[in-house]
Amino acid sequence: DLYRKVFVFRNDPSDAYVVLRAKLEQPLQNFTVCLRSYTDLTRPHSLFSYATKAQDNEILLFKPKPSEYRLYVGGKFVTFRVSEGRGDWEHVCTSWESATGIAEFWLNGKPWPRKGLQRGYTVGAEAAILLGQEQDAFGGGFDVYNSFSGELADVYLWDVGLSPDKMRAAYQSLRLPPAILAWKSLSYEVKGDVVVKPRLRE
């Protein structure tokens, strides 16, 4: 249970990462990923990397620069342009549904204009899920200049698209539906220089 705790990725650039273990019974037709990050990086960095043997960017939440987030599904991506952060925690939720190809992006509890991506695609279930690095091969192939440095918390993965009120609940750290990956019952393994510490502030 990592409630009120964070992963601190201390080095920049970094070769460290955290492996997340999820029980996925079947491929994903829909998903929602949520997490909170706190960093002063201005270079590209990976926030959440979900790779299968067939596709290294099966699901990837990536920040190429301070004013952009990218969501990859099955190797294709859409870009969400944001205002540059004010040096504070940023809470991101992004969801995707195969039937419509609609990708949603929420930053700090507010929705951005929806975009279309990979309609009819299915996300594979046999996955390597990592925080802190971007996979260019299954479970590896890292470029340290895409590594994350800073603090990560409140990481969740659902096999459904969350409703707007649940998206807002995730931002406010309220009660959430059962998840494939949940911060309060996370099965993880730290590789390299990552430290679990109490959160310094709300």
UniProtKB/TrEMBL annotation:
What one GO molecular function would you report for this record?
metal ion binding
Q: Which InterPro entries match?
A: ConA-like_dom_sf (IPR013320), Pentaxin_CS (IPR030476), Pentraxin_domain (IPR051005), PTX_dom (IPR001759)
User: Which keywords describe this protein according to UniProt?
Assistant: Acute phase, Calcium, Disulfide bond, Metal-binding, Secreted, Signal
Q: Name one GO biological process term.
A: acute-phase response
Cofactor requirement: Ca(2+)
Parts of the chain that traverse the membrane? none
The cross-references to CDD domains, in alphabetical order and at most eight, read: PTX
Paste the cofactor note. Binds 2 calcium ions per subunit.
Q: Where in the cell is it found?
A: Secreted
**Superkingdom to which the source organism belongs:** Eukaryota
Q: Which GO terms describe its cellular component?
A: extracellular space
The record's section on PROSITE patterns has:
PTX_1, PTX_2
Pfam families recorded: Pentaxin
Q: Which parts of the sequence belong to the Pentraxin (PTX) domain?
A: 3-202
- Reply yes or no: does the keyword Metal-binding apply: yes
Q: Which SMART domains match?
A: PTX (SM00159)
Cystine residue pairs: 34-93
Q: Subunit structure, briefly?
A: Homopentamer. Pentaxin (or pentraxin) have a discoid arrangement of 5 non-covalently bound subunits.
Q: Which family does it belong to?
A: Belongs to the pentraxin family.
What is the name listed in the Swiss-Prot or TrEMBL entry for this protein? Answer: Pentraxin family member
Q: Which organism is it from?
A: Burhinus bistriatus
